[in-house]
Amino acid sequence: MVSAVATVVRALVVTAAALALHACQIDSRSGDFRCERETDCPGGRDCVDGWCVVDPGESDAGGDGATSPCTRFDGETCLIDCLTPGACSAAPVQCPGTVPCAVTCSGSNACALGVSCGDAAACTVTCDGPGSCAGQVACGGGACTVTCGGAGSCAAGIACGQACACDTSCAGDGACAGAIACPGPPPCRSGGQCTSAPSQCDRC
User: Where exactly are the structural domains of the chain?
Assistant: First the structure.
């Protein structure tokens, strides 16, 4: 009887250990860029205030050649600041992972090859620089807000058709010369812009 109980106890211990090991191996996307020391960060990134960040002028290229330069973090949100003329234009700007992402292209001709929100849980793209975001701004499946305030900005248009909610603004002179694809039924487009105001247009 004692032997049978011991066998059961051993089996339970082994199972618990396996579950603990599995839990430790779960990939938490929101913690992809957390760090305690410099060696916790991949090449090209520095550990600043607990986050792995890169200089906005440097390239953190992935296999597709897109850059994901998180200049800094605001809580869980990756902030990509392209504030000087021609900044972030060596490759398309790519939001990393699933963390919320905010891209600011305020320099003239910044983000020249476009911006991709990728799998970001939520994405805000601001193209205030003249000629900024010349390439397409592509939203992912998360909530997306795109503001094209610079003259001639967002020249290749906005692809927002897959977003669970999308709001666009093309206030700059000659902004959004390309097509704007909005998600959902016709009420999700107003005055040529995408809007998430009607209830059926916000599926997030």
Answer: 75-201
Residues 70, 71, 73, 78, CA torsion sign: negative
pLDDT digits (tens, 9 = 90+) for 111-128: 999 999 999 999 999 999
- Which of 108 and 69 is assigned the larger pLDDT? 108
pLDDT single digits (tens) 56-78: 444 333 334 454 469 999 999 99
Pairing of strands 77-82, 101-105: parallel
Tell me the CA distances in angstroms from 183 to 46, 85, 175, 196, one per residue in order.
Answer: 38, 32, 20, 9
Question: What are the tokens at 159?
Answer: 């692809």
Q: 128 with 107: CB under 8 angstroms?
A: no
More confident call, 22 vs 143: 143
3-state secondary structure 154-189: CCCCEECCCCCCEEEECCCCCCCCCCEECCCCHHHE
5 CB burial (10 A radius; 0-12, 13-18, 19+): exposed
153's tokens: 């900005």
Are the beta carbons of 141 and 160 closer than 8 angstroms? Answer: no
Query: Exposed, middle or buried, 24 (CB in 10 Å: 0-12/13-18/19+)?
Result: exposed
Instruction: State the Cα–Cα distance between residues 34 and 76, nearest whole angstrom.
Output: 10
The share of the chain scoring above pLDDT 70, in percent, equals: 70
